[in-house]
Amino acid sequence: MEDPSTKTLKKLQGVRKELIYLRRSIYPLRESINTILKSESPLLKPDAEHFFMDVYDHTIQVIESLETNRDLQSGTMDLYVNTARYRMNGIVKVLTIMSTIFIPLTFIAGVYGISFQHMPELGYNWAYPAVWILMIVIIMLILFKKKRWLCASKVINNFLKSLITLLIRISRRSKEPLKFALPLIQLVINLLYPYVH
Is the pLDDT of residue 170 over 70? Predict the structure, then answer.
């Protein structure tokens, strides 16, 4: 079961079909032998009656064995399905991590792949990296909030405080502080405000 394959599944299904076939064959046999034993026919001699009792006991044992094998087959099938699901979950987990990393990067590459003559954040020293970090963090926070992977109100409030502090520090170092910081602060508050409440 370490490496579940379709071959294993086909074998398990084949065993299940055989068990069902045997069960359908033996159950009527038990009923027939039981009917013969209960009939008080003069054709049934005492020696034959003893023989039929043995056959009836053997049929009961075979039926019990079939039921045990059926339970074992069912458990093995469940184990196979769970192993296959576990393996699939591992694959999906890796793909999700890769998507979480590359989707925001693809978005940013798409935005900056457009040929603009002038981009507002390029005129300031720290503006370009700040916009990149801001876009990545905002996208990740919104994604994580929608997936309910984090408690949004505390995290986003702390993030807003840190971001506003960072933007104020950056704006103090730039030549035109208010032109750069205030629009970004307003943008962040407008984007994240619905997620805080």
Answer: no
